[in-house]
Structure formats: structure tokens, C-alpha cells
Write a structure and sequence with these properties.
The chain is mainly beta and about 230 residues long. Helix content is about 10%, strand content about 40%. It has one domain. The chain contains two helices and ten strands; from the N terminus they run H-E-E-E-E-E-E-E-E-E-E-H.
């Protein structure tokens, strides 16, 4: 059985058992512009310097933490879009088990800081970015890193609510050369990789939207079942 189906069936059962309870959507919205001055020179094409990017994704506070580490949380992202210039990608183009937000509550140190990564990994049927040539996407990510090891109090999703760019750097923007940034890892045909191209982080909003728990679980389950029922991309 596809590994996603047990997750979806469990969410369906929870939805019917939770008609009077409440939950919350957590929405992540981040945007900025590409800063391609820092990318591997062997990568033939990359988004032009100044190309706008946008990531808008949601999850919910019922999604379980799948990382057993008490200082690290890993949660599925349910829906959303990512845009680079004129190219837009729906989250459902990527396997449900590879679209995550990871939260790390560091134990301290100058190089081991609190951080969170919103990341979407592709598989062998990775989409490409048509506007910049035949580059297969290996990974989209938005990195949020604390300048003073005080980004989060624990490894929960709710600890990220309310964060803005000013919590991450002296900006806006947070420069692509700093810890908090946008990035795309690309594989280019005939060239070793992947190669990472980066963007400045100019805007960040992490908000919570209360919704009926049963509807949220039911919708999440249907979304996952819908993905598992799709044929693989050619």
C-alpha cells in the first residue's frame, strides 16, 4: 500500500470523531527577489537577478510531528504554491511525504542556532522551470535562522506564528548570503549537481486561521488521497 494512504485514512477517521472540536490552519507567506550573484558558475542558467519569488503554503496544528528528536519537529505541508518569476508550481506536484517544515530548537552555540526550514523535495518526475531552461528542481526551500539562538522556544509549529523578517535579520531584506533566505536546488542535464541558487527574503508572515477541526481533517485526507490516486508524471 502507498505510504500516504494510511495517513489519509487516519485523518478521515479523526474527522468523523471530531465534529465539535476546533483546529487551526497555519499559513506561511514569504516573498523576495532572486540574488543570483551566488551560484555555481558551471550552472548554465538561473533566474535573473531581481526575479520575484513567492511561497504561500499551509499546514495545520493537527499534523503530527514525525521527528522523534525532542529538539526537532518535522511536519507535512498540505497545500500551497511556489512562484519564481512567471513560473508557478502547485504543492501537489510534489509527493506528500517530501513537503515538510522542519523546526529545530537548538541547544546553543555560535554555529548551532534555532532555525526552521520550509522545504519541498522533488522526485524522479521533478518539474522544470521553463523560463530558465531545462533545469529539474531538486528542492525548494525557505530558511529561517535566528541571529541570536532565540527563534523558537520548542520544536512546535505554533512557536513560529508571528515571526517576521525583522526577527531574522537587520533587514528587510534578509540577504541571500545570510542564514535566512530562499533557495532552489537545480539539476541541469549533462552537468553535475545539484546547484543552489538563492534569493533575498524581503517579506515573511506566519499566521493562524481557526477552522472546524472535522472539516480540516476531512479536507487534508481528501487531498492526500487525491494525490495518491494520481498517475505518476511522465
Amino acid at each position: 500500500m502507498n505510504r500516504s494512504k494510511p495517513i489519509a485514512l487516519a485523518l478521515l477517521l479523526l474527522s468523523f470523531a471530531s465534529l465539535d472540536a476546533s483546529a487551526a490552519i497555519i499559513r506561511f507567506l514569504a516573498s523576495g527577489t532572486m540574488n543570483t550573484t551566488r551560484f555555481d558558475p558551471t550552472l548554465i542558467s538561473a533566474p535573473a537577478n531581481g526575479t520575484p519569488w513567492l511561497v504561500s503554503v499551509i499546514t495545520n496544528d493537527l499534523v503530527p510531528d514525525i521527528d522523534p528528536d525532542p529538539n526537532a519537529g518535522s511536519y507535512y505541508l498540505l497545500e500551497g504554491t511556489m512562484r519564481v518569476g512567471s513560473d508557478e508550481f502547485n504543492l501537489t506536484q510534489f509527493p506528500v511525504l517530501t513537503r515538510l517544515i522542519n523546526v529545530f530548537n537548538s541547544t546553543g552555540g555560535t554555529t548551532n542556532k534555532d532555525r526552521a526550514y520550509l522545504q519541498v523535495f522533488s522526485d524522479v518526475s521533478a518539474p522544470t522551470i521553463p523560463s530558465i531552461g531545462p533545469n529539474a528542481i531538486a528542492n525548494f526551500f525557505v530558511a529561517l535562522e535566528s541571529p541570536d539562538d532565540q527563534l523558537v522556544a520548542d520544536d512546535s509549529l505554533t512557536g513560529l506564528i508571528g515571526l517576521t523578517v525583522s526577527d531574522l535579520c537587520a533587514g528587510p531584506p534578509c540577504s541571500a548570503v545570510t542564514g535566512s533566505r530562499f533557495g532552489i536546488q537545480l539539476f541541469q542535464p549533462g552537468v553535475a549537481g545539484p546547484f543552489t541558487v538563492r534569493g533575498d527574503l524581503e517579506f515573511l508572515s506566519i499566521t493562524v486561521i481557526p477552522v472546524p477541526q472535522a472539516l480540516l481533517l476531512f479536507g487534508s485526507a481528501l487531498g492526500i488521497l487525491g494525490w495518491t490516486g494520481r498517475k505518476p508524471m511522465p
